[in-house]
Amino acid sequence: MNIQAIIIVVLFAAAVFYVGRMVYKQLFTKKSCGSNCKCGVDFSNVQPHKQ
Q1: 13/32 Cα distance (integer angstroms)
Q2: What residue ranges do the domains of the chain occupy?
Q3: Model-level pTM?
Q4: Which residues span the membrane (predicted)?
Q5: Within a 13 Å sphere around the CA of 51, how many CA atoms are in the beta-carbon half?
Q6: How many angstroms separate the Cα of 30 from the Cα of each of 6, 24, 26, 33?
Q7: Which pick of 12, 15, 25, 51 has the fewest CB atoms within 10 Å?
């Protein structure tokens, strides 16, 4: 195998790993909001104040 074929095989394997990891995370994630919106945080002990 020449060096160009080795580089192509390595890049292809990395791309397959990346896509597989994305699919795995989509299917097997926690059942919570992942957008950093703080919807699962309890703010009942926080005292509101105006600035």
Answers
A1: 31
A2: 1-27
A3: 0.53
A4: 6-24
A5: 0
A6: 37, 12, 9, 8
A7: 51
